[in-house]
């Protein structure tokens, strides 16, 4: 039966540990809650402002907005457009928002705002495109194209090397005749991309032009940059249409695909489109929480972060109490220290969090010493117990007030945080200490007093660890582990550390 | 570990595997409330110090003088006190007007002072969790001359640890100047181990240290043979049947006129008795565990224990 009970405790502790750890692991790995304190992530806010002069008729504006964004994930987006109705839809070039209004006078402004963060998990999820039809060009372009393709085809083995070679040819500063003819006199990046796409189509290689912007901090006017995507039969490869180098810069945000203009406007003139980019840091916690708000995860929905901010602040402290309790169990049942009141040191440790350790110890000691002095005087007045306790409490409050005022006058700001000391606990401690003092002598009273202070300081040290505070707040289910540890210590029947000293005479004596 | 091999019982082990297993919580009030213990003992015909009266409310504190009556000396104690706290021993009164009382340590206290103490007891200052308590006024035990050389004021008592109905270890507790006449080890009294077989005292323990002389009188505390030792053991054994608790400390005093009296029972007896006896409890408990199953009379139990736990003198 004795074995059975121990076995049961182990099983419960194991279940609690597994539950706490797996839930934390899920939140860490899947929902992205950070395990290290103060982890931050860069988020980008891109704002598109569309201004135009409205005509007399109905207005319809179709703006491409980010849909497929390799390397980035959308955190949130807003559409601001007074008086316009808007719909989102998917077209061949990606995602579009369509604003519409029957009539609007004068200058119109439409806003689209998106907040993104880097997420390496976001990749291109397109299906394999069909082979493109061979483009039909007039002469002399056709001949130039054929010549170029034949030339490049001879120097390459597959779609990837073909695209590489072709772009290198297009990028040469001193272009050969064929290239010059195809590109035109002063080719823009978009012209180069379009020409490359046409040439690749002629070689039956699927390719497309994507448009996007570079995410750099504090850009008032970001430029739309074309990029070339080439499908090698299994996946999309990215090429810089100007330099021909392969790959996608990691701050490139894909906005839409194809040759369509960014904005398609009916019923308006004098269009001005601006991209503004701004970067912010956001704590990983906030990010994970906002992501989880959209996710269907019950675990995240019911997390601490869904509480009002003041309540969160309270819990950030309350969650530390179990840690203090665990330390008390350890120090009392495994080490064997004696304290006044079981959990008094935990509350004192909480107060130390506000005052810092040194000030906390100084103030706790002076309050107890002064309080004891008054208590011994009160003894001579022969008061009944409850009024005497109340008197001690009142004196403790007055002493705290005095301590604050005096230390403030002396310029020690630490004395101001004294108010957070749990005064009822202090009053009870003083009362208990004076009883022990009278009944069992000063040695025992001082010993227990110092023991309480030591335990409080150790509790404080444990509760003040950044990592402890952070982990408990983000993963409150770790309390299950604390509970498991407490249960196991509840079954610890070995000697306390101080008992080894206490019974040392027995260990050494002969048989 | 050396302690483990000596069979020393630790606090955690005592709490988890001895007290929780053998002492049912519903039985605790029988021993935690000294009034109930006293009534139980009286009903079973066991000798206890005579009860003069009980004060249970602040209002009744004024009845103190009536309850004390003509007794010149008496003891006031909280019915639910722990560790000997709150016990006031009055040894005499001043002749003139009987206004002043003399305490065991020689101090004088006014009747107002005594009433204040009683009212503190009633408020629960000395009880477990500050609950209201009652003050008992009872016969003051007079130390038997046997202990005259080895105690300082106060009354020594004999603590017999009874495990599952068997006396398993015993010690004499001698008051010192520091314990202010009280026989509690944590207040500074000396504990002296007693050989169960012979009633002969062994060495003592003071604050976890081993001592051979009384710190105040300087008299040797070893090799004294306790009078009426059979009776002490029999008395302790009967207390098991009285309460049903499987692990109790029985405190017995030796009154010079009335012989051994049961003072109180303790459901959570301390572990220093092991230091006083220089022996661990666990081995003895295992031996007793092995005897379970057979029915023995009290006499047989005592006989078995005296045979099994004979202390070999160092």
Protein described:
The complex is a heterodimer of chains A (about 500) and B (about 325). Chain A is of the alpha+beta class and about 500 residues long. Helices cover about 50% and strands about 20% of the residues of chain A. Chain A contains 18 helices and 12 strands. Chain A has helices at about 1-30, 140-155, 160-170, 175-185, 190-200, 285-295, 300, 310-320, 320-335, 345-355, 355-380, 385-410, 425-440, 440-465, 465-475, 480-490, 495-500, 505-510; strands at about 40-55, 60-65, 70-80, 85-90, 95-100, 105-120, 205-215, 225-230, 235-240, 250-255, 265, 270-285. In chain A, the strands form 3 sheets. In chain A, strands 3-6-1-12 form a 4-stranded antiparallel sheet. Chain A has a 4-stranded antiparallel sheet with strand order 4-5-2-11, with no helix packed on it. In chain A, strands 9-8-7-10 form a 4-stranded antiparallel sheet. In chain A, helix 9 crosses helix 14 (about 440-465). The longest helix of chain A is centred in the N-terminal third of the chain and has 28 residues, at about 1-30. Chain A is elongated and about 115 Å long. Chain B is of the alpha+beta class and about 325 residues long. Chain B has 2 domains: about 1-45 and about 145-310, D-amino Acid Aminotransferase, Chain A, domain 1 (2-Layer Sandwich); about 50-140, Dna Ligase, domain 1, CATH 3.30.1490. In chain B, strand 10 (about 200-205) and strand 11 (about 210) form a beta hairpin. In chain B, helix 7 (about 230-245) packs across helix 10 (about 300-310). Chain B is globular, with a radius of gyration of 19 Å.
């Amino acid at each position: 039966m004795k074995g059975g009970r121990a076995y049961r405790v182990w099983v419960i502790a194991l279940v609690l540990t597994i539950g706490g750890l797996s839930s934390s692991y899920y939140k860490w790995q899947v929902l992205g809650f950070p395990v290290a304190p103060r982890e931050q992530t860069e988020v980008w806010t891109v704002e598109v402002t569309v201004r135009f002069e409205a005509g007399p008729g109905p207005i319809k504006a179709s703006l491409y907005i980010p849909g497929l964004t390799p390397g980035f994930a959308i955190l949130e987006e807003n559409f601001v457009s007074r008086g316009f109705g808007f719909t989102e839809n998917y077209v061949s070039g990606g995602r579009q928002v369509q604003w519409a209004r029957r009539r609007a006078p004068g200058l119109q402004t439409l806003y689209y705002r998106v907040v993104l963060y880097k997420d390496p998990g976001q990749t291109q999820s397109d299906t394999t495109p069909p082979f493109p039809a061979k483009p039909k060009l007039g002469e002399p372009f056709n001949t130039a194209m054929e010549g170029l393709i034949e030339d490049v085809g001879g120097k390459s083995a597959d779609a990837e090397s073909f695209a590489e070679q072709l772009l290198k040819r297009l990028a040469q500063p001193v272009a050969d005749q064929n290239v010059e003819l195809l590109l035109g006199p002063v080719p823009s990046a978009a012209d180069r991309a379009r020409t490359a796409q046409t040439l690749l189509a002629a070689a039956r290689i699927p390719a497309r032009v994507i448009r996007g912007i570079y995410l750099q901090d504090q850009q008032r006017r970001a430029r739309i940059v074309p990029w070339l995507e080439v499908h090698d039969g299994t996946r999309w490869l990215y090429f810089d249409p100007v330099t021909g180098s392969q790959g996608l810069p990691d701050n490139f945000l894909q906005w839409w695909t194809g040759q369509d203009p960014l904005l398609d406007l009916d019923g308006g003139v004098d269009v001005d489109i601006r991209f503004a980019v701004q970067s912010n840091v956001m704590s990983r916690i906030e990010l994970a929480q906002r992501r989880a708000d959209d996710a269907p995860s019950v675990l995240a929905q019911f997390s601490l972060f869904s509480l009002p901010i003041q309540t969160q602040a309270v819990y950030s402290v309350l969650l530390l109490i179990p840690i203090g309790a665990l330390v008390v169990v350890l120090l009392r049942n495994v080490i064997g220290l004696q304290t006044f009141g079981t959990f008094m040191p935990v509350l004192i440790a909480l107060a130390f969090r506000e005052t810092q350790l040194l000030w906390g110890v100084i103030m706790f000691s002076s309050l107890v010493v002064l309080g004891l002095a008054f208590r011994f005087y009160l003894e001579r007045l022969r008061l009944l117990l409850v009024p005497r306790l109340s008197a001690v409490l009142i004196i403790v409050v007055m002493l705290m007030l005095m301590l604050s005022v005096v230390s403030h006058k002396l310029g020690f700001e630490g004395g101001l945080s004294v108010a957070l000391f749990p005064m009822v606990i202090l009053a009870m401690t003083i009362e208990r200490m004076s009883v022990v003092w009278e009944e069992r002598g000063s040695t025992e009273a001082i010993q227990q007093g110092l023991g309480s202070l030591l335990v409080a300081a150790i509790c404080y040290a444990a509760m003040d660890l950044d990592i402890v505070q952070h982990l408990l707040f983000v993963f409150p289910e770790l309390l299950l582990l604390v509970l498991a540890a407490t249960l196991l210590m509840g079954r610890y029947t070995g000697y306390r550390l101080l008992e080894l000293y206490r019974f040392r005479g027995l260990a050494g004596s002969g048989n | 570990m050396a302690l483990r091999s000596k069979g020393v019982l630790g606090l955690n082990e005592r709490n988890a595997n001895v007290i929780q297993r053998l002492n049912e919580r519903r039985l605790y009030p029988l021993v935690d409330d000294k009034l109930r213990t006293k009534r139980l003992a009286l009903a079973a015909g066991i000798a206890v110090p005579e009860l003069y009266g009980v004060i249970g409310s602040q209002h009744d504190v004024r009845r103190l003088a009536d309850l004390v009556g003509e007794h010149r000396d008496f003891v006031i104690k909280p019915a639910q006190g722990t560790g000997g706290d709150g016990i006031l021993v009055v040894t005499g009164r001043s002749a003139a007007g009987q206004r002043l009382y003399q305490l065991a340590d020689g101090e004088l206290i006014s009747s107002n002072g005594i009433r204040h103490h009683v009212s503190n007891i009633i408020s629960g200052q000395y009880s477990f969790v500050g609950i209201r308590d009652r003050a008992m006024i009872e016969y003051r035990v007079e130390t038997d001359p046997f202990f005259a050389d080895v105690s300082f004021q106060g009354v020594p008592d004999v603590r017999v640890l009874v495990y599952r109905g068997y006396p398993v270890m015993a010690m004499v507790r001698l008051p010192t100047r520091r314990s202010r006449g009280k026989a509690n080890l944590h207040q500074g009294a000396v504990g002296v181990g007693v050989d169960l077989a012979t009633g002969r005292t062994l060495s003592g323990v003071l604050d976890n240290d081993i001592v051979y002389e009384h710190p105040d009188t300087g008299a040797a505390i070893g090799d004294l043979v306790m009078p009426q030792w059979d009776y002490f053991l029999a008395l302790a054994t009967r207390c098991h049947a009285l309460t049903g608790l499987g692990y109790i400390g029985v405190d017995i005093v030796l009154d010079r006129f009335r012989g051994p009296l049961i003072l109180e029972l303790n459901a959570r007896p301390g572990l220093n008795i092991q230091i006083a006896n220089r022996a661990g409890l666990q081995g003895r408990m295992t031996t007793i565990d092995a005897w379970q199953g057979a029915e023995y009379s009290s006499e047989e139990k005592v006989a078995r224990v005296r045979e099994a736990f004979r202390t070999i003198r160092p």
